[in-house]
Known about the structure:
Helices cover 63% and strands 6% of the residues. It has helices spanning 2-9, 42-71, 79-104, 110-131, 137-140, 143-151, 170-194, 211-247, 258-261, 265-268, and strands at 21-27, 34-38, 158-159, 164-165. A hairpin with a 6-residue loop joins strand 1 and strand 2 (34-38).
Amino acid sequence: LLNLLRDVVFAEKFESDVREDSFAVVDIPLVGGKFGLIGFEPLFWLQLITLVTVQSIVNVTVALVIFEFIVSQSGKKNWLVRNMVGYGVVCPLLVAFPFALIDYMELRNKAMMLAGAASCCLLFFRCIEAINEGVPEFAKRNRSSFVLYYASTINFSFDPKLDKVERADRSEILRKSTLVGSLFLQATLAFSILYPIYEIVPIPEGNVLTGMGAVAHMINNFALASLTSICLEVGSTANGLGVSLMSGLKTVDVNDNPLSKSQSPSEFW
């Protein structure tokens, strides 16, 4: 099956974007350059969906192992077992798996490589959470609850009053669909303005760390941080929307404008 995916679905590497502006090309004088709508590439999105599906399978497999050999071994007397299985087996495998997947599937596109590694990064910290007995109470009730907690890269929304995962009703699906569309447009516009030099204020020659050079760096860094934040948010929100559509369960919102709303580093994270 993996050979089939590599040779058929992932045959195109998307190492460079060779698409051309298809329609609605306009000039923006103050920004510079031409802007337009580029053709849709369905194979690119098929590859992303395939990687997310592979992640879900990995999530469930790791959940079963962690539940049986770590979560079920609670208490001080099983401390050594939890640490040996977690730090000695599960965590090293989670670190190695993305490299093996990227190498075997011959992924070359940065977005694909990020998608192939994202789930294992999250599982690594969830394993540490389990080793130190920090798993939420609702997830520890039984194997099914624990697998549900791990199944999606984007967490399901749990209602403590009802003591169960919330359902995604029609209004929630509409809200999330609208949010995905808005974020997608924001990410596209921000990327188009910053590409290819990724700066909006020219860096002066000479001492670039003081005076206007420092201000220019701050502005450009904030612009890139904003682009990164939007890209992460549109990816996580779209993932959560897809999971909600398939499962009928509500997923959490990962971000809430951290760059503009947070008032301290800890609140930002």
